[in-house]
Amino acid sequence: MFMRLRFAMFAVLLPVLLVPIPAQAADITGTAKVREGDNVQIGNTRIRLGGIDAPSVDQLCLNNSGERWTCGVAARDELIKHADNKTWTCHVRQAAADRRGRIVARCEVDGEDIQKWLVKNGWALSYVRVSHDYDDDEKAAREAKAGMWQGAFIAPWDWRVRNKKTAILGAAKPPENAHAILLASASGSVAPSPDCTIKGNVNHAGECIYHTPKSRWYAKIEMKISKGTRWFCSVDEAEAAGCRETRR
Questions:
Q1: Distance CA 72, CA 180 (A)
Q2: Does a structural domain hold residue 235?
Q3: Nearest to residue 54, comparing CAs of 190, 157, 141?
Q4: How far apart are CA 230 and CA 211, in angstroms?
Q5: φ, ψ for residue 199 (rounded to 5)?
Q6: pTM for this prediction
Q7: Alpha helices in 38-164 (DSSP H)
Q8: Is the N or the C terminus of the chain less surrounded, counting Cβ atoms within 10 Å?
Q9: What domain count does the chain have?
Q10: What is the DSSP string of 160-180?
Q11: Residues contacting 66, CB < 8 A, separation 6+
């Protein structure tokens, strides 16, 4: 009786604990839509690139001049440029999707290990909690001051939990207020700095529109990463990111 009860409880819990992946759990092939430096989508399948950790699109870093820099956006955009219109082949690495419903895989782009490329060029770190496959590539990026390593940043896994005790990585000597800058979000509800109060918003047509504090609709723009919003420190920065000024 006890064994039957245990089996019944397990059968009820199993769908909650595991998210099924497609029946053909072999390779997933096609062109990919890049969501973040370590997140892509092929067809209807969302894929988390295994063995690495890249900054989220709203993570902030400092560049080699000590200036605020949206390194998460840079990592995403560099991957888009490198892999644009190329064929991806992703090898599924675990039997269930992660807690966000993404399949974890190792991917090749036209035969190139794309995780290795990201880490070696400084746009992601070796995710040592699960793998040491890309440790040598991270060392090479650090020595070359490539990507994020040119300036100052905190590890993506620390940034997501806002770990104030974390070490600051990179080549640049960070200013005294570096932690406050690096732990802020480019898309959070509060401006990451008193000097960064321009709001960037994506309209229904997919255009990025920026609003200065004097704009008519400024107070009504709700800053949420899920809505694609982002803070800018200057009009030049907003326009360099492809945004235009609101017409109202």
A1: 17
A2: yes
A3: 157
A4: 11
A5: -95, 130
A6: 0.73
A7: 71-83, 114-120, 135-144, 156-160
A8: N
A9: 1
A10: HTT-TTPPPEESS---TTHHH
A11: 151, 152, 172, 173, 174, 175
Q: What is the pLDDT of residue 160?
A: 86
CB 229 within 8 A of CB 192: no
Strands in the chain per DSSP E: 27-30, 33-36, 39-42, 45-49, 52-53, 61-62, 68-69, 88-92, 103-109, 112-113, 125-126, 152-153, 169-170, 198-202, 208-211, 230-232, 244-245
More confident of the two residues 240 and 95:
240
At residue 4, the pLDDT reads 43
Q: What are phi and psi of 95, to 5 degrees?
A: -80, 5
Helix (H) or strand (E) holding 10: helix 2-17
The dihedral through the CA atoms of 195, 159, 105, 127 has a sign that is positive
Closest by CA position to 39, among listed 69, 3, 83:
83
Pair of tokens at residue 154: 């905190």
Of 76, 5, 83, give the one whose Cα is nearest residue 35.
76
Examine residue 8 and state whether it is found in any structural domain, yes or no: no
Cα–Cα dist 2/35, whole Å: 47
What phi and psi, each to the nearest 5 degrees, are found at residue 9? -65, -40
201 within a domain of the structure (yes/no): yes
Distance CA 136, CA 140 (A): 6
Q: How far apart are CA 46 and CA 101, in angstroms?
A: 7
Q: Is 244 a residue whose pLDDT tops 50?
A: yes
**Residue 143 vs residue 164, higher pLDDT:** 143
Does 199 reside within a domain? Answer: yes
- Note down the domain range covering 235: 188-248
